[in-house]
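Q: What changes when PMV is included in the input?
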Amino acid sequence: MTTASAPGKIILFGEHAVVYGHPALAVPVTQVQATADVTTDLATDAEANKPIKKDLGEKNWHSRIFIEAPDIGLFFPLEALLLDQTPHPLAAVIINVFQFLGITSHPALKIRVTSTIPIASGLGSGAAVSVAMIRALSAHFGHTLDNEQINALAYETEKLHHGTPSGIDNTVITYARPVYFVKGKPIETLRVGRPFTIVIGNTGIRAPTKESVGDVRKLWEMDKKRWEKVFAKVGTIAQQARKAIESGKSDGLGMLMDENHTLLQELAVSSPELDRLVSMARAAGADGAKLSGGGRGGNMIALVKPERAELVASALITAGAKQALITEIS
Ligand code: PMV
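A: The predicted holo structure follows.
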């Protein structure tokens, strides 16, 4: 069996504006992980070899791959995930890796994907699953892909998840390091001058990023001048935050988070649940708070003094958060 894992992530500053070319900051969250196991399944090879649908022609070999993703109740041969016009993202990862590696025949395989990253919650579960699968599959066939190759392959699948992704999720998750990210530019690592503590609160509401990104695009198309000003303000905040983080002077960081959240509210990607958790975190003594990721649900983050972390985490749970994680950014 070949196993690989990838962490979750949070966006500290700059989500949505990053799709329009402005900078954003993101960090990995290693407390949550996606894992992919690839097993050569010789015992069921003969059985798996039987075509499941006769009319699939050359796609018949896909019946030799079985995918299990118990977290989403998915237990299917690969070909069943290829029947729709848009392939299932899990199937797309496999096809892309095989095409990239030039693999056209193989023994029966079982690919099992598990994850502790909440789905559709702004913690990068889709990208982490892709990265874990790419690493496990390529290693299983004896290939070592570098991070650039893994990142490019994961980005292809992000397009299925998000429509027009900036690429920030797959980048921070592939490199598993804090990043300063600008779409289409070479990756820049974010140096953290002094560690700081973040509490992550999950509203428990699943909200597909594709929808919020699509709605922001509709706003932008209606009045580009107006919304580009908002994106530029978000970009400036991300740049100021980078300076604060790199210099180790994180005093102003909380205020920058609050300002970023206000701009995300203007973009209509917050929600009453997110706003409530953000307010509660501030009331419990956080230095600042904002939604993180696509919004409308999913997660929010709060910057806290380490000694206040537990207090803010339990205030979030009292306020209705389904989960609260404390993570140190270093
Ligand atoms: O996957 P999420 O929900 O963390 O969102 C990614 C961040 C966005 O800026 C909203 C979209 C993108 O592609 O950058």
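Observations recorded in class: The CA atoms of residues 29 and 73 lie 25 Å apart.
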